[in-house]
Amino acid sequence: MTQSTAVAAMPRRSILAEVANRFGMEPAAFEQTLRHTVVPSGCSKEQFAAFLVVAHEHDLNPLTKEIYAFPAKGGGIVPIVGVDGWIKLMNRHPQFDGIEFDDRRDGDKLVATTAVIHRKDRTRPTRVTEYMSECVRGTEPWRTAPARMLRHKALIQCVRVAFGFAGIMDDDDFERSGMIDVTPPPAPKREQFHSSEEPAPEPTEADEREADRLTQRYAETGDTSGAEPQDEPDPGALPPWPPQPTYKAVKEIADQITDAETLTAWALANEPNIAKLAKIPQANARGAIADRRAELEAVPE
């Protein structure tokens, strides 16, 4: 047998087996672990494989949340790289030669932060400036640590420009891209149940009955979930889903969760409820969960 024939005869390992092997896990166990921690429910085999390809290409660890998957507004998933993942990409690049930050202030007010990355193979550094007025959001991390969050934003964008990373994004870009709606909406109206900019399809009789039921339930109790009351969870179980899952209610419970893995498990366990809330603009569960995830992944000073 010639060398070329021997190479051609070697079995080709799947992307799942390839990535699982890096972490010393069996492929089946590795897939189940990711599906219960960093991949949303309903993710197809093809979408899961695409997520693994991105993680493998950039050598990011999904088990430590350097990269995770988030459900896109129109279906499917989007690979999201946390700030730890961006720092890892930067530090291990062979041409990386240091990073500096320069804050611009108006008195005591932080106006902008510039990240400056030096490369060994270039005579001039890459500079990216992010402005507070464009980046600030009304979330807990931005309220309590605005300078740190703006530095994260400048770092991520500068890493992207300096090293040409494509096909990945951070959670802030994901939310601002329109793939997910994180803006607290106005009070629900019947005509707003279909939130797409495209004309809503003709509702079926079942759709009409469900919409009537949700509207009546909201009018009587303020409950936007449409779900039946649930029993109290056993001690040590995941936190309960709020009976009135507005942004504030979901965020208050999410704030009690102290690690990203439990937060993901809680979101996955309640994915049917979260999906149902798309009919009611008053609720914004995905935005609340995304904001809490950003808080948990913020890098300490």
What's the topology here?
Elements: H1 3-9, H2 15-22, H3 27-35, H4 45-58, E1 67-71, E2 77-81, H5 83-92, E3 96-106, E4 109-119, E5 126-131, H6 132-135, H7 140-144, H8 146-163, H9 171-176, H10 205-221, H11 247-254, H12 260-269, H13 271-276, H14 285-296
Antiparallel strand pairs: 1-2, 3-4, 4-5
In short:
The protein is built from 14 helices and five strands.
Q: What are the segments in which pLDDT stays under 50 over at least 5 consecutive residues?
A: 5-10, 179-198, 228-235
Kindly provide the radius of gyration, computed on alpha-carbon positions and rounded to a whole number of angstroms: 22 Å
Strand proportion, as a percent range, falls in 5-15%
Q: How do the strands line up in the largest sheet?
A: 3-4-5
Q: How many H/I helical runs?
A: 14
* Topology, number of strands: 5
User: How many angstroms does the end-to-end distance come to?
Assistant: 60 Å
Broad structural category: alpha+beta
Shape: globular
**What does the largest sheet look like?**
3 strands, antiparallel
**Assembly status:** single chain
Mean pLDDT across residues: 75
- The secondary-structure element order is HHHHEEHEEEHHHHHHHHH
Estimate nothing, just give the exact number of structural domains. 3
Proportion of helical residues: 40-55%
